[in-house]
Structures are given as structure tokens and as C-alpha cells.
Amino acid sequence: MKAASFSLLLLALSLGACHSYEGPTTASGQVVDRFTGQPVPNATVQVAGLASGQGLGGTNFGNSVEADAQGRFSLSFEAKKPVNYTLFASTPSGYASDYGDSPILKNGGKNDNLLVKTAAPAWVKINCVDDPPASRVGLYTGGYNGSGDNQMIGPGNFSFVRPIGSNSPGEIYSELTDDKGKAIISKKPVNVANFDTVTVTIHF
Q1: Which of 118, 148, 181 lies at the terminal end of a domain, its last residue?
Q2: pLDDT class for 21, splitting at 50, 70, 90?
Q3: Rounded CA gap, 159 and 143, in Å?
Q4: Residue 127 belongs to domain spanning
Q5: Using the 8-state DSSP alphabet, how is residue 195 labeled?
Q6: For residue 128, is pLDDT > 90?
Q7: From CA 50, how far away is CA 88, in angstroms rounded?
Q8: Measured between alpha carbons, how far is 41 from 62 in angstroms, rounded to an integer?
Q9: 159 and 144, same structural domain?
Q10: How far apart are CA 110 and CA 25, in angstroms?
Q11: pLDDT of res. 102
Q12: Counting C-beta atoms within 10 Å of the first and last residue's C-beta, which end of the chain has fewer, N or C?
């Protein structure tokens, strides 16, 4: 999902004309929770410059400012061409922006009433329970942040914790494989609140 949203951002940047301009640039607005729309207080808002045609490695972070208790902020910086600019926000508690939600700035001008969307962290705890006689030797799990986990399993219970998007309906995918390569696939719906942990149990 993040890869797709980043691709959309790159497309928008490539189609926009903002990189044709430079000079004094201002930005103001509010940091909010992506899902509730509520203000996120005391976030750090930072300018990010993305050189045209480059991936994440071309991202340079610049001026930053602290938002107030209502998430409101105002900042200025010197834009340079052919760089495109956007804003990211984060808090010590774990709220952070995603590339797909980042506002694209107009170089050399005013950017007012911006919404910088953020999301709080959440986690999924996956409990793997050994129900003898165990005949499963492999387990793949996914549906949380990252590319998923592919691991060999043996006798005994175990568990692990992974980060997952908060307030966003999804599902935890699991695929258990036996020693003959036969797989049992399971999908369990999840929706985790901000800063919360949901537990999913897998029997093998």
C-alpha cells in the first residue's frame, strides 16, 4: 500500500509545474489524524525536498517547526529548482505521515490551509499454538507493515509482534505448510485502534 501511494506521489510531482519555480516559499496549516480528522498536538513539521526522477534516496529534509496544541503550524524556506517539496509530520508518541498523504507545495509562493495527515502506530501480536501431533513445518504470515514473515516452525508455542496500520480495516494472512508442501490458508480480519495491540492466534 505504501509503495502504491508513493508511486502516486511521484506521478503527481512529475506532472506538476512546481519544480519550475524557486524562491521564498511559505506553508501553513494543521496536523491531523488521518482517520478521525482530529488535531494532532505538538507535532514536528518538516520540509522534504524530492529531486525529480529520484526515489526515496533523493529525499532531503530541511526546515522544521513545532506545531501548537491544536496542530497548527507556519514555516518558510527557500525553494530551489528542480526540486519538488512536501511536508511530513511526526510526534514523539509515534504519529507519522505517509508519502501518499503528504501535501505537494507550490515553489516560490504561499501554501495555506494545508492538512498534514498522520497516523498513530498500532501492533498485532501473533500467537502460534502447537496442537500435537504437529505436522506443519512452515509458516508465512502477512497483512501488517512490511513484507511479511516466512519461517520454519517446530514443537512448542511461540509468538511475535509486528507494527500495523491503526484504524484501518485489514486482515492477517497465514499460510501453514506441511512436510509434503500442502498449505492451509487462513485470513483473520483486524482493525486496531491507535496505540493498541490486537492478538491473532494461529494453531499448527
Answers
A1: 118
A2: confident
A3: 16
A4: 121-203
A5: T
A6: yes
A7: 12
A8: 21
A9: yes
A10: 6
A11: 87
A12: N
Strands (E), the chain: 23-33, 44-51, 59-66, 72-79, 83-90, 110-118, 121-129, 136-142, 149-152, 158-165, 170-178, 183-190, 197-203
Residues 86 and 134 in one domain: no
DSSP state of 102: P
If 0-12 CB within 10 Å is exposed, 13-18 middle and 19+ buried, where does residue 73 land? buried
Q: Which residues contact 60 (CB under 8 A, 6 or more apart)?
A: 48, 49, 51, 83
Instruction: Give the separation between CA 9 and CA 25, rounded to whole angstroms.
Output: 20
pLDDT tier at 185, thresholds 50, 70, 90? very high
Q: Is the pTM of this model over 0.90?
A: no
Which residues, 6+ apart, have CB-to-CB distance to 182 below 8 Å? none
Query: In whole angstroms, what is the distance from residue 9 CA to residue 31 CA?
Result: 19
Q: What is the pLDDT of residues 132-166, one digit of tens each?
A: 876 778 999 999 998 999 999 888 899 999 999 89
